[in-house]
């Protein structure tokens, strides 16, 4: 679901839909941008603190527990003191923009894994950098898995794709709040 409130009030939408649809806490996954992680790194956790993130703080307050899963998508923290808002709502660097599609693909796989196989499976397979890795050295290439093998990590074909349906939240008026990098990423790859 995409809340129609400001990010700082995300808990209102999460709490409302949790009650309305009788959603169990273990089936909730909150996706959030995180300046504490390098760009392209994703971290799945089953619970935790808000880490200073006001949206997570609001969700925790309204659910009355920090025990819900969250996927943190690293956006880095390359900004001068006091420029956090401009950085998070600004445009990514060209080198970040170049790897963004691959990062989005991996984050999407992690979300599907959570939905279809559960949190533990998703954490074991996707808590890593979603950014493409540097080219292997000749010695590393000799030690790689044969072509077509996934070394324990599921491919999208191995995960059952859920039925596509309409969003659970009807689209309302245009969003008034500036759109973050994570939200632009979600909007771009939503189709």
Characterization of the model:
With 191 residues, the protein is α+β, with helices and mostly antiparallel strands. The chain has seven helices and four strands. A four-stranded mixed sheet has the order 1-3-2-4. The longest helix has 24 residues.
State mean pLDDT (0 to 100 scale): 75
Order of helices and strands: HEEHEHHHEHH
CA-CA gap between termini: 14 Å
Low-confidence stretches: 140-177
| Overall geometric form | globular
Q: Report strand %.
A: 5-15%
Number of helices: 7
How would you sum up the major sheet? 4 strands, mixed
Rg estimate, integer Å? 18 Å
Topology of this protein?
Blueprint: H1 10-20, E1 29-34, E2 41-45, H2 54-63, E3 69-74, H3 84-89, H4 94-117, H5 119-126, E4 128-129, H6 138-142, H7 181-189
Parallel strand pairs: 1-3
Antiparallel strand pairs: 2-3, 2-4
Helix pairs in contact: 1-2, 4-5
Write a concise keyword list for the protein shown above:
191 residues; alpha+beta; four-stranded mixed β-sheet; 7 helices
Q: Could you provide a short overview of the structure?
A:
By secondary structure, the protein is α+β, with helices and mostly antiparallel strands. The protein has 7 helices and 4 strands.
């Amino acid at each position: 679901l995409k809340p129609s409130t400001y990010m700082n009030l995300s808990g209102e939408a999460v709490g409302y839909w949790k009650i309305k649809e009788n959603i169990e806490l273990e089936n909730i996954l909150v996706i959030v941008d995180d300046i504490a992680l390098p760009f392209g790194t994703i971290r799945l956790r089953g619970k935790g603190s808000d880490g200073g993130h006001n949206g997570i703080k609001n969700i925790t307050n309204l659910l009355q527990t920090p025990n819900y899963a969250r996927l943190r998508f690293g956006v880095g923290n390359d900004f001068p003191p006091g420029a956090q808002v401009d950085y998070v709502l600004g445009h990514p660097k060209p080198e970040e923009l170049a790897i963004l599609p691959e990062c989005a693909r991996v984050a999407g796989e992690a979300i599907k894994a959570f939905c279809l196989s559960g949190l533990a499976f998703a954490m074991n397979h996707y808590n890593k950098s979603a950014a493409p890795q540097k080219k292997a050295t000749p010695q590393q290439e000799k030690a790689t898995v044969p072509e077509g093998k996934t070394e324990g990590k599921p491919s999208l074909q191995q995960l059952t794709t859920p039925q596509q349906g309409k969003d659970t939240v009807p689209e309302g008026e245009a969003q008034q709040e500036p759109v973050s990098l994570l939200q632009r990423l979600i909007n771009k790859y939503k189709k």
